[in-house]
Amino acid sequence: MSVLDPPVLRHLGFNDALHPDRSWIRLLRFAVGAFVLVALVRKTCDATLPGNDVDVAQLYSEFTVQSNLVLGLVLLASAVLPRTRLPEWWDRMFGALALYLVMTGIIYVVLVAPPGEPLWSLDLYWPQLAHHRVAPLFAALDWLLVTRTVRGSWWRPLAWLGYPAAFLVFSWVRGGIDGWYVYDFLDPTLAGGWPAALTTTAEVLLAFLAVAVLLHVAGNARSSLAAGRGKR
Predict the structure, then answer these.
(1) Has this prediction a pTM greater than 0.85?
(2) Which of 203, 173, 166 is nearest to 188 (CA)?
């Protein structure tokens, strides 16, 4: 069933108001997508400056940068193209991106952010605000609110974990080659060695799975509501 099917949308009025082709939704997607990508350009330029701790290659090895890059491009494409021009799996990709961006925000606050850094402040380095605050919040709200009728199978949360798992392997292989680990909690050369790194990584993966299941259930509930199965 298409997300654009008019009989479906007539079941509940707010489905029409939150339709992905509504002008205000497309405008919001364009604005946030552009903001995320401009912030990435700024980070890239800053990485080329002398004395910067992270070079461009290392910057694009970060989970945050990779997920925000894809989110920005997807939001721009969704803003420019009508839903009928995009494949059905496009909505499934939004769920995966919601997971990756939500976890980006959570992991940054819990494990990566400097001690005492405020959750929201204009004093923050603004690309950090874009990538660790604005993008995660917008991706979650887009997934939970915008009308979709595509439902996911029970194994969808496991499929979403494929990229984070591959990223972990990539990070450890790269670190073993050049000695640079993208995040301290992945670095087995720090205090605690491999046991500490593996323990923290296992906790992170469990958090990914828990959030993936929650987003999967919420997405299916939203699609059922959009299809009219929530109508009394």
Answers:
(1) yes
(2) 173
Position 1 in a domain: no
The string of pLDDT tens digits covering residues 119-142 is 777 778 899 999 999 999 999 999
| pLDDT band, residue 2 (cuts 50/70/90) | very low
Q: What is d(CA 171, CA 182) in angstroms, rounded to the nearest whole number?
A: 7
Q: Which two tokens stand for residue 118?
A: 């405020």
**What distance lies between CA 71 and its chain's CA centroid?**
7
Summarised one tens digit per residue, pLDDT across range 49-61 is 988 888 999 999 9
Question: How many folded domains does the chain comprise?
Answer: 1
Taking the C-alpha atoms of residue 96 and residue 159, their distance in angstroms, rounded to an integer, is: 9
Domain-embedded: residue 231: no
Residue 232 in any domain: the answer is no
Which helix (H) or strand (E) element contains residue 172? helix 162-178
